Write a sequence for this structure.
């Protein structure tokens, strides 16, 4: 892992940083392919919206872009993380009047996912851990992620790729690291994120593609069991693009035509990384 | 500020620490008086409970105690913070099988609160920010504190010492940094913390003292307006001990006999720091 802290190569941050003390931060996780951070503009916009909603100063996009390109240069496939922290200072929960925000960009190897996750689909479980309803933070990719950490700690079985999370009222919201879509009778649905969850960039892309392809779309609040009646189920995030689901617990699914069509669009337009055949992955271009 | 990171004097932590990335940490804030961390045993117990509920390994209390004493030695009045992080590692939300937890102890000056906060009481406001209902995290002093940070960012008026927070259903839970008690018709009440809020060590002490003093106690879930009908209202935390409330918005209160009696007990038993007369505070013994 290589990281830039405020533009300098480094890996240490003040232990008094408010991100460390309170999770007072926002972040983005971005796929890098052939030296380019994918969907840069959308990630940047969401980062700025997150900073605004958390009442933190806007980030300098020119600087972010230049540092992102520096880290991504020559990388065939990787993952770039941007973390903007509220910085050191303020007694207790009170921030200083002018926060000294810290900018951390780090480049990570692309995860070693088998190509069959894209072709045959993934096995998914239901998480016990519930998501709280908090409209003030819903949709944001903020630094308070204990719910996801505890949900992800529920299983170690390497055959299970993701866990589905419901909110405290039992409504399906998302996966621990992905958004969820279902197709039933030709209608594409995804959970409403006004109370909980992260409004993923790949989710946004898929919704835009669906509009373009004239697929009817519904934003839905419904219990998990209703979602399991779908013809197709799939997961999205910026690193994986789109994974069909082939099993939730004991309920089987098949990758369907909508997932295939969307995968094709994402790949053709280079909005998501192309799955590499097993053994061919390398971090250099 | 002096800090020990895993026993060594230092102030830097890996930027990849899970506390910084996800708020994956627990902490304690402890008053120090005459070289002694107050209520050490209770703080240690809560820390261990927090680690257990977050599925992190237990901390070595002998090491913690020795480092806490090293930092507190010779300090007349101060604040000691213990932060236990989940450490570096794990791809995404998944922790490594054996987390490399980091131990950060830091000593801070005692805040410069005027003595009248203890004698005459403090002015308090209602926060707009609500607390989510999340039983899996309720009661814990964990590292996901954006709700408190955003609540504390609602005001800058130095005359206002604390903000009261309701949950998303409108029930009073706590202050941004304190627990709340009310007295009405001789009965002591404090909000239930099974859905949200931090189960404060000073709250626990006050409940124990109340049992000893044979004060009837109720744990209550009720909207803020019900609490404002109290005869007495007061706030507690480990650093302040007990502050009577003299005003919530436009509603006036008076420090009452129960607050006075509890303050006296806390002070006599050296469970809370004694308020120093203005101008006399010093950080050395």
């Amino acid at each position: 892992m290589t990281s830039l802290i405020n533009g300098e190569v480094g890996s240490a941050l003040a232990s008094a940083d408010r991100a460390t003390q309170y999770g007072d931060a926002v972040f983005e996780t971005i796929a890098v392919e052939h030296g380019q951070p994918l969907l840069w503009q959308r990630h940047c916009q969401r980062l700025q919206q997150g900073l605004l909603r958390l009442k933190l100063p806007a980030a300098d996009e020119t600087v972010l872009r230049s540092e992102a390109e520096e880290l991504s240069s020559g990388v065939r496939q990787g993952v770039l993380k941007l973390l903007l922290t509220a910085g050191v200072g303020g007694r207790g929960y009170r921030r200083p009047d002018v926060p000294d925000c810290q900018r951390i960009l780090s480049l990570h190897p692309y995860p070693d996912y088998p190509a069959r996750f894209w072709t045959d689909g993934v096995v998914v479980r239901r998480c016990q851990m519930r998501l709280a309803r908090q409209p003030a933070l819903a949709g944001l990719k903020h630094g308070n992620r204990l719910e996801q950490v505890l949900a992800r700690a529920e299983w170690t079985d390497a055959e299970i790729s993701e866990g589905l999370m419901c909110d405290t009222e039992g409504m399906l919201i998302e996966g621990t690291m992905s958004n969820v879509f279902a197709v039933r009778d030709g209608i594409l649905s995804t959970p409403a994120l006004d109370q909980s969850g992260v409004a993923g960039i790949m989710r946004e892309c898929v919704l835009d593609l669906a509009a373009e392809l004239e697929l009817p779309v519904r934003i839905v609040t419904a219990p998990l069991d209703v979602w399991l009646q779908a013809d197709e189920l799939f997961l999205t995030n910026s690193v994986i693009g789109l994974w069909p689901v082939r099993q939730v617990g004991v309920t089987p699914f098949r990758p369907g035509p909508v997932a295939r069509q969307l995968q094709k669009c994402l790949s053709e337009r280079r909005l998501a990384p192309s799955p590499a055949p097993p053994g061919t992955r390398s971090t250099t271009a």
